[in-house]
Amino acid sequence: MSFGALAAVGACVQIVKTLYEYHNVHTRNKALLDILESFSQNLEISIERLQAREQMLGFAQNDALDSIERDFRKAKEWLQANDKNLRSIWTALQASDKLKDLDDRLCKAFASKMSVAIFSALQDTRAGVARIETTLEGLPTNLETVCRTSTKEAIHEVIDELKAEAYAVGSGAADGKGFSNGEAEKIISQLVDQLAEQERLKEDEELLLMSTYPILDPAPPHAATVPYAPVSAPSQYSADQDAPFEPSASRPSSTFSRRRSQMTLGSTAMISEAISPPVEDPTGLMFDLVDLTGAEIVDPVLASDGLIYDRWALVNAKIVPAKSPLRILGEVTELRDKLFAAFPNRKQLYRSMRQEYRLNTLRLYKSSTFTDLPVLLDRFSHILLFEPSSVSLHVRRGLVNYRLRLLDDALRDLDLAVHLSKRGLSGETDKHKPDVDALRARALVLEELHRNKDALQDIEAVLAQVPRDVLSLSLRATIRGNDGDATNALADLAATNAAVRAGKAYRSRLGDDDTDLEYLARGWAYCSVRDFASAATDFGYSASLRDPADPYAAACQALALIKQEESKLGSASATTLETCLAQLEASLGVIRTAIMPSSTPPEAEVPRTLPSGAPALSAVEAGFPVTAYPTLLLRGSAKAVQGDAEQALTDIELALRLRPSSVREVSSLRCAMAELRLAGGDREGAQHEYDLALAAAAGVGGTRAAVLSAREQHGV
Predict the structure, then answer these.
(1) What is the pLDDT of residues 351-393, one digit of tens each?
(2) What is the DSSP letter of 267?
(3) How far, in Å, CA of 394 to CA of 191, rounded?
(4) Residue-level pLDDT at 22
(5) What confidence tens digit (pLDDT) does each residue in 621-661 have?
(6) DSSP tag of 290
(7) pTM for the predicted model, two decimal places
(8) What is the pLDDT of residues 110-154, one digit of tens each?
(9) Is the distance from CB of 332 to CB of 299 less than 8 angstroms?
(10) What element of type H or E holds 310?
(11) Topology annotation, domain 368-664
């Protein structure tokens, strides 16, 4: 019946197409045009009726609907047979009369036959409802029999099938509402109660057996090695292996409560304390239910020491004696499946713990400040261990890495996010357009690395989809301004102002507020066209969007204020220099405190990586972490304006040593250091800096020419 209705709709569409072709031939005949329009409107109404009624007809064959299909098919055949007559032989008046007659007969037949079809469908629906009611009346008796005789696995299977039937047979699989009056939910609830009662009876029987629980000797040396347990671990004793139900994982009153029979062996010392041996599955796999930290294993992972732990014991940084620091290498899926088979309640706990950790991390991300970034980096790394294909999480971790100036890791995350966003459901590459948020974040990192050509490709791809993205427009303005194209840079900045004032600026689909990065990038753009007053305003606004203020944005504002006064008055006043240098010192202090808290002893050994695989941030040189390198460059520039060439050189050299390996464009910094050495009378040192600048600019024509020009200008 469904195929018949669809065929009828297809016939209608073909007729409409044919009639429009006739309209092209007789376009000057007003009467024929009116008839054609009336006929096509009637057909459209008929098609809509067919589509609406098709949703209601789902039980049996409907002869009336099949008759409607035949009518339309015959009409189509008549039109095709008389194609030549309609086009050239019959006059316009004759063609109009015949088409009007066909229109009237089809409409009358459709109205009468559709009423019969609807009545028949309603009768079929009533019969189907009666069959459903009969099935429901017999369900309780059938389920009661199943509960008395079946095993736990079979009962769980029945529950799953009943749920599927409830959603499929009830009010339709599409809306997923199940039975309207809750019969299926009640039956499932009764079935679960029956299952819980049988498990409680089973636990009572096991508690009686435990009073005479025998202590067995260890397995003989020649016994086969068992995975995930010592060779000397004794085998599990069970007096009721043939029973239909296995022991429950816990009491209803406590999710983590354990019976003594579920506790495990961890060492020879624990054996002497009368703790019972590991659980053995009928398949022969043995495993401990408690790891070395004392945590119950809900989400088993393999650590870098070769042992198995619960994921959340390592996430929560529980100390493992003589085995810290550990790193999660991967999931132990075989053990996890065995745990869930033996203790089904742990599956729900496993899912809920992962979901809760993810939600808490996203909440922290939305309200985070600079001091939260190391914690966020660790948390996102943990989540990506079990959600490695999440585009949004890679974008967010990439931005966290960017804010910490871990640019290598940031670029790696964002490259992967772009790749994953283009992948199809079946894994095929380049199936979709790359994700806009991943592209704009990657452009931000690429611009920081001075890879302007790659950054512009991402920027243009973003603006092709969202032309009012303030971040992308600001980054393009920065690149154009640094290349000397001030006109187009100012045009991009004007576009950002128009988008902000109109309230049409693009906002991330992730729901994250990255406005501070937009104003930070716009501040750089104003600096590139030497509008330091506007730059200082944008930097200040960017810093104020975080509480406490973002240290890097505040440092950018301080240097912009110095440059503004210098460009306006020829030199910065002592008061401005003192105030702005104090702000720069405060920003560096915030960075050092966030990365190396005061509670950490100086002699404490800091691990290089955390259990999640995230880098453990620490001081690299002179008490500064990698995160401080751009702020040190800003302070070096401020010291140069102040006239303290020696301190400026110290800051720039330290920043160069701290910079990530991906920051390769340092020729401009080397030229600045050469000028500082010349100011101090060190011509030999300046010559060496120019040599290093030329080496860094190798292969980059424009940059190399600029270095040579500066060298000749200073006569070095």
Answers:
(1) 999 999 999 999 999 988 899 999 999 999 999 999 998 999 9
(2) S
(3) 43
(4) 53
(5) 777 888 998 999 999 999 988 888 889 898 988 888 888 87
(6) B
(7) 0.60
(8) 776 776 666 666 555 555 555 555 555 555 555 555 555 555 666
(9) no
(10) strand 308-310
(11) 1.25.40
Question: In this structure, how many other beta carbons lie within 10 angstroms of the beta carbon of residue 211?
Answer: 6
Query: Which residue is listed with tokens 């809760």?
Result: 356
Residues of the chain with CATH 1.25.40.10: 368-664
**Distance between CA atoms of 478 and 496, rounded to whole angstroms?**
13
Q: Residue 147's closest CA among 181, 189, 185?
A: 189
CA distance 402 to 323: 32
Estimate the share of the chain in helix, then strand, then coil, as percent rounded to the nearest 5. Answer: 65, 5, 30
Other CB atoms closer than 10 Å to residue 90's CB: what's the count? 15
Compute the distance between CA of residue 394 and CA of residue 377 in angstroms, rounded to an integer: 11
CA distance linking residue 621 with residue 654, whole number of Å:
8
Q: Yes or no: say if 707 and 671 are a contact pair by the CB < 8 Å rule.
A: yes
Position with higher pLDDT, 83 vs 590: 590
Give the closest residue to 407 by CA, choosing from 657, 629, 595: 629
Q: Is pLDDT above 70 for 216?
A: no
Q: 155, 592, 188: which is closest to 371 by C-alpha?
A: 592
What is the rounded distance in angstroms from the CA atom of residue 296 to the CA atom of residue 293? 9
Reference 8, options 47, 38, 42; nearest CA is: 47
User: Mapping DSSP to helix (H, G, I), strand (E, B) and coil, where does residue 331 land?
Assistant: strand
List, in sequence order, the alpha helices (H) in 615-644. Answer: 629-642
What the block records as the tokens of 17 is: 């197409």
How far is the C-alpha of 581 from the C-alpha of 651, rounded, in Å? 13
* CA-based end-to-end distance of the chain: 91
Q: What is the mean pLDDT of residues 151-164?
A: 63
